[in-house]
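User: Predict the structure for this protein chain, please.
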Amino acid sequence: MGLTKFLSSRLVGKQLQIKNFACFSTSPVTAQEERGQKTSLYDFHVSQGGKIVNFAGYLLPVQYSDQGIAASHVHTRTPGCASIFDVSHMLQTHITGKHAIECFETLTTADIQGLQKGSGSLTVFTNQNGGILDDLIVSRVDSDFLYVVSNAARKEHDSQLIKEAVEHFRTAKNKDVNVQFFDPSERALLALQGPGAQAALQTLTKMNLSKLYFMTTTEAEVAGVKDCRITRCGYTGEDGFEISIPADRGSAVAAALLESKTANIKMAGLGARDSLRLEAGMCLYGSDIDTTTTPIEAALAWLVAKRRRDERDFPGANVILDQLKNGVTRRRVGIRMTSGPPARHGVTIHANGDKIGEITSGCPSPSIAGNVAMGYVKEEFKKPGTAVELKIRDKFFKAEISKMPFVKSNYYQKPKE
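Assistant: Here is the predicted structure, written as C-alpha cells:
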C-alpha cells in the first residue's frame, strides 16, 4: 500500500518502519482519498499534528508529529501514562425492545441472557459454515437495551445483517425489537488506554471508576458533556475505557483529557493501535480472522458460551461443536522471531522443510524488543516452543511458536469473592 516512510523514533538502535504495520497506507492523502469520511475529531487531529491516512474509508491519524509509532506504543504501556485513540469510525448500534436479546443471540455465539446488566462480552457473528463474519463487543445495558460496537470495515455487512434479523423478528414473529445505527457524525468514540487512564478520566466524571470493572458499561457525564457512555475495555491489553460521546463534543472531551494533571496523556494513531493489539494477541478482522476461519481454529473457543453450546442454536453450531469435539487441522498461534525482519501477512511458515502455515499479522514489538507475529499452523505444530522457519523474500529465518499475549494483560478485573 505504498508503505515507504520511516518513523523518527528508534527501537533497539534501528529505525522502526511504518511499512511494518499492516492495514493502512502512509502515503499523503490524495484528492480521491479526501472523499474518505471524516470523524468529528478530524480538525482536532490536524491541529495536534496528526498524520492522516485513509483507513477503511475514514481519514484518521496513523501517528502524530510529537512521537513515532514505537514511542507512542511505549507511552501507552508506561505507568502514569495513557493514550487517546479516535475510534469513531467503528459502528455503534443500539438494539432495543422486549425481544432485543433473543433477536441478537440469533446472530452471535454469546450468552447475552446470562450477562449481568451493565456488563458486556466480546463475541462473533458466524455464518452457517461456522466462519466468522465479524468480531464485536455487545453490552447488556438492560433487559431491553443492547449497546454494540463492531468494526468499521464491516459496517455495511453488519448493519444489513442486524437489520434483516430485526425485520424478521418484527414481521415474521411479531416481536418487539428495534435497531438504531449511529453515524460518526452523530456519535464519537474515544479509546483512552494505558495505566494512567483511570486517574485522568476520574477527574472529569462523577462516576466512581474504581467500581467500573473490565467489560462493564455505564452512562455518565464526562468533562461537562452529558449523554456519554463509558465502557471499560479496549484493544491494547492495557486498562482503559471507550467513551461514546455526542459527536460535536468529542474534541472537547479529548482536549480535556490531554490537559490532565493526574496522568501523562497523549494522542495516538493507528500505527500504535496495531502493534499494541498484536502484542496483546488480539485479532484484526480481515487479517487474522474472516469468513474462512472458525472460532475454534482462531483459538477463540471461549467465545462460544456454554449455554449456547448446550442449546446448539447459533449460526454454524453444527460445524463449530463438531470441531470442539473432534478437533481442527489448523490453529491460530503466536510466533516470536529469533532472526530476520518482521514477518508480514502472507509470509509462509515452515518446519522440517515443509510448509505448515501462513502469517496473518506481524510487526516489531517495542515492548519486548523483537519481532512478533500471529498466524495459522497445522494442529500438530501449535505447541509453544516449537521451532519453525519463516520464508521472507526467499530467505528462511528462525522463529518459534509462542503463547499469546506476548505481554502481560493489565485489565481492571473485579476482585474474586
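Residues 155-171 form the longest helix (17 residues).
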